Amino acid sequence: MSGLQSAANIPELRKRIFFTLAMLAVYRAGVQVPTPGINGEALAAFFQQNAGTLFGMFNMFSGGALENFSIFALGIMPYISASIIIQLLTVVIPQLETLKKEGEAGQRKITQYTRYGTVGLSIIQGMFIATGLEGMSGPGGEAIVLIPGLQFKLMTMITLTAGTSFIMWLGEQMTERGIGNGISLIIFAGIVARGPAAIVNSIQLIKAGEITLFFVPFILLFMFAVVAVIVFFETAQRRIPIQYAKRVVGRRVYGGQSSHLPLKINIAGVIPPIFASSIMMFPATLGGFIQIDWVQRMSAALSPGTVYYYILFVGMIVFFCFFYTAVTFKPDDVAENLKKNGGFVPGIRPGRKTADFIDKVLTRLTVVGAIYLSVVCVLPSVLISQLNVPFYFGGTALLIIVGVAIDTISQVESHMVMRNYEGFMKAGKVRGR
What pLDDT, on the 0 to 100 scale, is given for residue 57? Predict the structure, then answer.
């Protein structure tokens, strides 16, 4: 409580928090604005019937926007997919790799390419969804699209693309002028907003007898256990000891102190499950709208609850754990910086030996982190599919909620620490002789 009061007393931090909350409120308001030409009752009945499929999971990540078929129906997933593609191309295309090494200017160019990719993917997904909706109907046989045709397809494609572009802009503004990662906070807000509906749906399932009261305490206990595991692994660190050599400059001695290099067990955070979920949703969503036999068989094989789905999902989580860690953390650069500043790992020679040692430790940590993410994301989903509990209580949703909350709180604390240091430095006046 005292920490929150301290944060409220800092004008800049208070402004950032209010800005973030205001942007999230704008996003949640846009989720309620429907796309024209849709029979809302028929679409809601369709999603209620398919709540346990990939449509239900996609609807969860979009915060209910797909169920309402609002202007934000595509959510932020096209942006995430474009980011994955650009990061993969950075490893393959030398020009993109050169841009990445150019610092802030190169990063702005890569961000621009990501935006172009987001618009392109949104156009493709919007056209596929509009075409698929024209051939779909509600449980009672009523048409979901009121007036099918080219006009509806173009209007839907433009509307959904504009909605995703606006969400992308909101996320970037929150990252720059607010607190936390804007894209992660948008997904976080969507999942949290679906929480009350999930609780009501679970109560209805209990009343209908589809969930027995005997399993309710077990489910709640299991959720608390998953949250505890997530908090433990997200805050756990492997600290590599660092010793700095003494340097004599004139009559003064610098260095000689001991420090450590903190390496998180899960450096990638919630990125691998989000990336994996995004890729798993894209082909299966297309399969749900394209009425072709082999596409339907592929969609059924990749639906949640199947063995192929979990195998591919775990494989993607492991891949993105290693890929994201390799992209964001460079052992060679860390070893070079330590060498320049006179630091070394006790018992390890500076330079290449230090880089190899850090890379070895990092690889082992990434293996543990990948196993942890796979278990947290898959095991609860398997149990939930057996107990007929909605997706909102699954491991992926809990991981995103807890992970984003921890990251946001850490950024708030960092701003408070910076503010304290600034106040300390401003308090005293340095005077010359």
Answer: 62
Which H or E run includes 198?
helix 195-208
- Residue type present at position 420: N
pLDDT of residue 431: 44
Would you state the pLDDT for residue 169?
92
If we measure between CA atoms, which residue out of 72, 88, 74 comes closest to residue 33? 72
Instruction: Give me the sign of the Cα torsion angle 358, 359, 362, 367.
Output: negative
Dihedrals φ, ψ of 253, to 5°?
-115, 125
> What does DSSP assign to residue 38?
B
pLDDT at 432: 41
Give the architecture (CATH level 2) of 210-393.
Answer: Orthogonal Bundle (1.10)
Q: Nearest-5° angle of CA 194, CA 198, CA 201? A: 140
Structural contact between residues 409 and 417, judged by C-beta atoms closer than 8 angstroms:
no
210-393 and 1-193 share a CATH fold: yes
**Region of 91 on the Ramachandran plot (φ > 0 left; ψ -120 to 50 alpha; else beta):** alpha
Among 291, 278, 263, 246, residue whose Cα is nearest residue 367: 263
**Rounded Cα distance, 94 and 99, in Å:** 9
Separation of first and last alpha carbons in the chain: 45
C-alpha to C-alpha distance for 274 and 400, rounded to whole angstroms: 8
CA nearest to 246, candidates 337, 341, 335, 345 = 341
Per-residue b or e along 133-171, where b marks 16 or more CB atoms closer than 10 Å to that residue's CB: bbeeebeeeeebbeebeeebbebbbebbbebbbebbebb
Residue extents of the structural domains in the chain? 1-193, 210-393
Q: Report pLDDT digits (tens) over 249-290.
A: 556 655 567 788 888 888 888 888 878 877 777 666 656 556
8 pLDDT band, cuts 50/70/90, is low
Tens digits of residue pLDDT in 14-32: 888 899 999 999 998 888 8
The answer to whether residue 424 scores a pLDDT higher than 60 is no
Q: According to CATH, what is the number of the domain 1-193?
A: 1.10.3370.10
pLDDT at position 56: 59
